[in-house]
Design goal:
Helices cover 27% and strands 13% of the residues. It is α+β, with helices and mostly antiparallel strands and 273 residues long. It comes from Glonium stellatum. Residues 45-155 form the Heterokaryon incompatibility domain.
Length: 273
């Protein structure tokens, strides 16, 4: 059996349950449409974490979601979403999950329900396409970039269909929790949790009210290890020291609408040192 068929069979054996509304991407042409999976339906899918960078030109609402089940014109999608579709198709995947389209943005109940599912959605994805280089949904990520490593070698490569391309070999970058703290690859500890918070709280959120929900997936992972209650961003087993948080700002800014108890770091804006 050809290697390609063996790989395809291996992939098909590890399909994930489709637990939420998802975008279906047609391979023959770039025309995604919203799909509500049936109970028990399975499939491999990609996910796209990215920076919104402002108002979304394409998003699901009560008014648009029904139309999107009939299809979304590819040319109307912003660059980051188009690049994600292309990547998904190149990986021979049929589905992709993107929050602005797969969550009904003006339905508070759907937003809360889908945020609760996000840890499972990302954990069970076949691949996560991280558009970390794009500052907004209009920037995209499929473009030439200079190599950030010292050792780089480009070799010619012939694809199975006969076309000529190239393979770029680079010296692997050693993982550093100080440079990339928001990761589940590190061994969970209270110090690593606080390192994650330092990095997380210096980031800009399009919707500040999502400050606690946005980190809930990572908190759920730590909760399994800590075996402790989680109180609005603080852990019960270390509550005395957890309450000693501070911010790097001299003037503590609180949002007009309360999003967390006053004793939680999530109640204020600014980086947590």
């Amino acid at each position: 059996m050809p290697n390609r068929e063996k790989n395809r069979e291996k992939i098909m054996e590890n399909l994930s349950d489709l637990v939420t509304i998802i975008l279906t991407v047609k391979w023959a042409r770039f025309e995604p449409y919203l799909h509500q999976p049936d109970e028990g339906e399975v499939g491999n899918y990609s996910t796209l974490p990215y920076c919104w960078g402002g108002e979304q030109p394409v998003k699901s609402t009560r008014a648009t979601a029904r139309d999107y089940t009939g299809g979304i014109r590819f040319s109307k999608l912003p660059k980051t979403l188009r690049d994600a579709m292309i990547t998904t198709i190149k990986l021979r995947l049929r589905y992709i999950w993107i929050d602005c389209v797969c969550i009904i943005q003006d339905d508070p109940e759907d937003v809360l329900r889908e945020i609760a599912k996000m840890p499972q959605i990302f954990q069970e994805a076949f691949v996560t396409i991280s558009a970390s280089s794009a500052r907004s949904i209009h920037d995209g990520f499929l473009h030439y970039r200079e190599s950030l490593t010292e050792t780089r070698l480009q070799l010619p490569y012939q694809t199975p269909d006969g076309s000529i391309g190239s393979v770029v070999l680079e010296k692997p970058r050693r993982y550093s929790p100080e440079k990339e703290p928001i990761s589940l690859r590190v061994r969970p500890s209270i110090d690593n949790w606080r390192s994650t918070l330092r990095d997380y709280t210096c980031r800009f959120l399009t919707f500040p009210g999502d400050k606690l929900p946005a980190i809930s997936g990572i908190a759920a992972h730590y909760e399994k290890i800590f075996q402790s209650q989680y109180f609005a961003g603080l852990w019960r087993f270390a509550l005395a020291s957890e309450l000693l948080w501070s911010t790097t700002r001299s003037d503590i800014s609180r949002p007009a609408v309360q999003r967390a108890p006053s004793w939680s770091w999530a109640s204020v804006d600014g980086e947590k040192p």
